[in-house]
């Protein structure tokens, strides 16, 4: 275990089981359709690549980079900025937004409104982690991987100051790592 990690919250085995379960649900729900999976960079990249291995239907995917955090911040600013937009049109598409974690809901609230203006046929959300105790904007999560308590987590794509993304599990970062900056 990385010495900066207080404890493992979601193990590699639990990650694999959640991806398989979510992939099966998405396969069943999108039969006969060609959904567009929109990966919210950077945190959700590992999750989406593992998830779509379990989705057994034709699909397309694209990437969008948005941020409501900055650098070493551990709390959202609430100001959602689009850093990289989609290359694919959403008009008349069944869109599945793929997120690593839903915390306050600010990012997804903004993206749902934006995607509606782009005339998506439907918009569903799949999130690997859900932290409902921190929710400010109440967005509906259609496909939920794992609910977690209000702790600062890293690993499996999620970072602190661009570190820890490559951990194969989700761990709670020791408070002294981020509270001293």
From TrEMBL:
GO CC term (a single one): cytosol
Source organism per UniProt: Companilactobacillus versmoldensis DSM 14857 = KCTC 3814
Family label: Belongs to the purine/pyrimidine phosphoribosyltransferase family.
Record NCBIfam families: HGPRTase
Catalytic activity: IMP + diphosphate = hypoxanthine + 5-phospho-alpha-D-ribose 1-diphosphate; GMP + diphosphate = guanine + 5-phospho-alpha-D-ribose 1-diphosphate
Positions of the Phosphoribosyltransferase domain: 13-160
Keyword list, A-Z: Cytoplasm, Glycosyltransferase, Magnesium, Metal-binding, Nucleotide-binding, Purine salvage, Transferase
EC number(s) reported in the record: 2.4.2.8
Pathway given in the UniProt record: Purine metabolism; IMP biosynthesis via salvage pathway; IMP from hypoxanthine: step 1/1; Purine metabolism; GMP biosynthesis via salvage pathway; GMP from guanine: step 1/1
Pfam families: Pribosyltran (PF00156)
Localization of this protein: Cytoplasm
UniProt KW Metal-binding keyword: yes
Entry-linked InterPro entries: HGPRT, Hxn_phspho_trans, PRTase-like, PRTase_dom
Its job: Purine salvage pathway enzyme that catalyzes the transfer of the ribosyl-5-phosphate group from 5-phospho-alpha-D-ribose 1-diphosphate (PRPP) to the N9 position of the 6-oxopurines hypoxanthine and guanine to form the corresponding ribonucleotides IMP (inosine 5'-monophosphate) and GMP (guanosine 5'-monophosphate), with the release of PPi.
Cofactor(s) named in the record: Mg(2+)
The protein, known as: Hypoxanthine phosphoribosyltransferase
Molecular function GO terms recorded: guanine phosphoribosyltransferase activity; hypoxanthine phosphoribosyltransferase activity; magnesium ion binding; nucleotide binding
GO biological process: GMP salvage; guanine salvage; hypoxanthine metabolic process; IMP salvage; purine ribonucleoside salvage
Highest taxon listed in the record's lineage: Bacteria
Enzyme class at the top of the EC tree: transferase
